[in-house]
Amino acid sequence: MGADVRADGPARAAARGPKPTLALPAGFRLHEYRVDRVLGQGGFGITYLATDVHLNARVAIKEYLPAQIAFRTSERTVSPNASEHLRRYRSGLEAFLVEARTLASFRHPAIVRVARFFEANRTAYMVLEYERGESLKAWWARQGAGSASAHDAPPAAPAGGPAAEPALDPADAARETALLRRLAPLLDGLQVVHDAGFLHRDIKPDNIQVRRDGSWVLLDFGSARQALPAPGSGAEDVALTPGYAPIEQYLDDAQGAWTDVYALGATLYWMIAGRKPPTADERRHADPMRPAAVLGRGRWSPAVLAAVDWALRPRAADRPQSVADWRQALYAGHAGLLDLGEALRRAGPGAGETPVPPLRWRAGPRALWADLRRRAAPAHWSLGAKATAALLLAALLPMALTGLLHLRGSLDAVADGERRNLQLIARSTAGRLAQLVGDSQKLSRAIGTDPAFVEFLLQRAQRPRPAARPAEAGPGAEDAVEGPSAGLPTAAPAAEATTLAALRGKLGAIVATNPDLQLLMLMDRSGTAVVSSDPEVMGRNFAFREYFQAARAGREHVTGVVVGAVAGEAGVFFATPVRTPDAGVLGAVVLRLRASAIAGVLDEVRAGTPRQPWLIDADGVVLHHPDPQWRFRSLVPLAPAVLERIRADQRFRRDRIESLGLPALAEAVAGARVEAGGGGHLAFRSPRDGEPEVAGHAPVPGLPWTVVVSEPEAYFEAPVDRLATQLAAALLLVGVLAGLGAWLLARGLTRPVLALTRAAEALKRGDYAGATLTVRRHDELGRLARTFNVMIDVLRQREREGRAPAAEGGR
């Protein structure tokens, strides 16, 4: 996406520099960075050479600015050039941030490094290391490498058999070796990308930078995405590079490492043949591509040519399925360039145990139990067991303590970050709801000040009319006063009928153009709907409704989610008073917003996650939840007065409001509405299964509602759980290795000690020959054994000297 982070490239790149109206001027400041000049411009952005004024270091800054759909305003901000491009612009901006996050997660010398990224000027910027060098395309052209041409055609096969493979010229062999040596780190970097679960999806000579030291670095991750998406998943389209993109990118089929391998093979094909392969779409049926084995014969080794052709197989299943598979084929004739670590295999010696005295199996249970207890006491452990236990404890205890501390810290950090994230999501969703409601309020006010509606109500107010039948309270009160008897004249003049039809048409047109609206109605001072976009509502009296009573008193009113008997659906009512020129109230304009519009905004927070959006009103009643059984239930038992008011208003069409039993959530929601800029996060247990959950909450600005976003703790703790599993596996592995090391150490210690013990026992028996040790060691135990042998010799000599006088006295 956008321009690459290249320096010292071809002069023509600077010659076709960006339009002055698009690029930021030299000297412009972006946080701590000062723009110096433009490095290049692509279809999706501009790359600048900049200076970190704090560190006095050169950096490259990539700015998202799709020239076809956006422009630079006079305030230096970026904006779509047409309203129909807004969604496309935002989608591209999200893709730009995905590229930044992707690159920031990699640390490899062959992957361009992102120092940071940020949003400013209504667009986004990516700060990258300033790579000095040129593109592989320009670098390869300077190498003067020959391409396949007529004079490079392979020799004809002799009669009776295939042509022998010609030997490579020493210069060609050296060029191939140097090329593969430079390519190896780039393959390692791409393997890092794949191991992280990402694909590049746009590898080509223009996206490989050759540094001044000759090393290669992979650029432009604008098309990167997570590997192996489901076919037809609807992932956002990216610009394909013909010749380098395989067929699965055209068809949106399953993509994987084989997708990037195809692009690498196409890049090497371009270097070998001097031209890129035909497009994958052209190769679907009758493949017009001449194999690399034909075009490069005599100039490149057969192993390299065969690996390139393998990578360029049209069917994904026929290609190498990983970078490692392709590397083995590509370097088959250059084994000296491979990393020997890939072939290493760990092996350990056979196990053994230090001999211990046997248990007395036949001495009876009590004697056997006594032997077992004696062996369990550390004082009676063998030297090998003690050494093993000491080494295991020394190896595992620090690692376990450190791991547990880090694991606990990671869990706390993840939990705190997720709680704050939920709070931010709740705050963002609350802002969107406020915007949705505010737009509806503006529409209601506009209709309430429309001269046609004001004049209509004014004429009706000045003309005597028959008395309306009083409305009834309670269920079905919306239907209590209907038809002409509800305040409409039984025989309206023709002019009034024409005006009424025009006003109904006007309201109907407004509702038809706004899918979020369910109905609009104009009420007179008695609460009778005299004009409505829904014919079934005409003539009904809603004087008992709280929203009309507020409007009749001259106040605007927004309800919670109300379930009406006429519409049969849940919705939110906005009532605006219609005033006379002298500020008297003639009636009210009532707008009904579909609850599905509000639910649509709330349900967007789920996005394939177990997050649950809640909408709670000022009384603590759940207005929206993904589980319908939780809707219109209170967080805590309601006060009798509140319950009676809800029952009388019949907003939920039910006589009982059951409680969910969530006092902590109720207290937090009430506090968020009281505090200025309220909102926060908390932990609670789900009423459904009692599992712990966390939630972020935020009040809806200007409305008596609160948005809550909750999710199970197990969801965000899953990565930490995997880390704990890895820690346990690491402890097990270290325990095995430490046990092996302890056994080797114990074996080295106990064998000389056992030999000394046997020698001492032989000495007690007077067997000096059996007490003499064979010493091959040169450590402390070896010196001890030699000293023991000297002692044996001294004792033997003294015994001989003592026997000599005794023998003479006997004679």
Our estimate of the beta-strand percent is: 15-25%
The domain tally reads 4
Give the neighbour order of strands across the main sheet: 1-2-3-4-8-7
Total number of helices: 20
Low-confidence segments, given as residue ranges, are 6-20, 149-153, 155-162, 228-237, 340-356, 467-491, 805-811
Q: What is the number of strand segments?
A: 23
The CATH topology label of the largest domain is Beta-Lactamase
How many angstroms separate the termini? 114 Å
Largest sheet: 6 strands, antiparallel
**Outline:** flat
Mean pLDDT: 80
Can you put this structure into words, describing what you see?
There is one protein chain. The chain has a 6-stranded antiparallel β-sheet with strand order 1-2-3-4-8-7, with helices on one face. It has a 5-stranded antiparallel β-sheet with strand order 15-14-18-17-16, sandwiched between helices. It is flat. It has 811 residues and is of the alpha+beta class. Helix 8 packs antiparallel against helix 9 (323-330). The chain has 4 domains: 11-131, Phosphorylase Kinase, domain 1, CATH 3.30.200; 135-146 and 171-340, Transferase(Phosphotransferase), domain 1, CATH 1.10.510; 382-720, PAS domain (Beta-Lactamase), CATH 3.30.450; 721-810, no CATH class. The longest helix has 66 residues, at 383-448. The protein has 20 helices and 23 strands.
Task: Write a concise keyword list for the protein shown above.
Transferase(Phosphotransferase), domain 1; 811 residues; single chain; Phosphorylase Kinase, domain 1; Beta-Lactamase; six-stranded antiparallel β-sheet; alpha+beta
